[in-house]
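Ticket #217: bound-state structure for glutathione.
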Amino acid sequence: MAMKLHNFWRSGTSHRTRIALNLKGLSYEYIAVHLGKEAHLTEAFKAVNPQQLVPALQADELGAHVLIQSPAIIEWLEEKYPTPALLPSDPQHRAQVRALAAIVGCDIHPVNNRRILEYLRKNFGADEAAINAWCGTWITAGFDAYEALLASDTKRGGFSFGDAPSLADVYLVPQIESARRFMVDISRWPRIFAVEKACNELDAFRRASPSAQPDAV
Ligand SMILES: N[C@@H](CCC(=O)N[C@@H](CS)C(=O)NCC(=O)O)C(=O)O
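RESOLUTION: The complex was predicted; output attached.
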């Protein structure tokens, strides 16, 4: 089944969607949407996603319907292509993995998104040091909690949950990439750092990385 992913190399939500697609073994056409050139703010892209954010996923079987919002896209992939699973089978464990993913998806990424940072620059005169401090604050708060949860999971293997990549890793790895961009020192979180290393040993993660994308500069 042919799929098209509207995305941007450096976008964390695009990155997490690429990881999920790769882990599921799905191929897709890469449609670059240049956020730096505000290609997402054009009328043409508004017709694809009225929210004017990436990613957006088109698939033959969906006809004219476009999937938006990376959590919805990733859940659709999980439901449609259950193997390999991104969520464990036990409901409590599923909640545990979803909570880790939500630390990134609900509490870190949204406040550090491009449009938020643009607003801080334009309306509050934030310079790059202030932007890094802003992003560093929310990344640190989220990663401190994530690290504590990893530390308290005595059954954990090399990944965020168990010994195979899960939804939590799909969200975590792009956020680490973003943290480095905002000059956050990852060595403060040794377990997170080790999980990233384990993920990056997998081809699915390596192929999804920002620098490996056709529109990377
Ligand atoms: N909750 C949405 C957020 C999507 C989102 O904010 N994408 C960013 C890139 S990571 C974007 O398009 N930003 C454009 C902007 O802020 O101007 C999702 O997970 O898909």
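RESOLUTION NOTES: The mean pLDDT is 98.
TICKET STATUS: resolved
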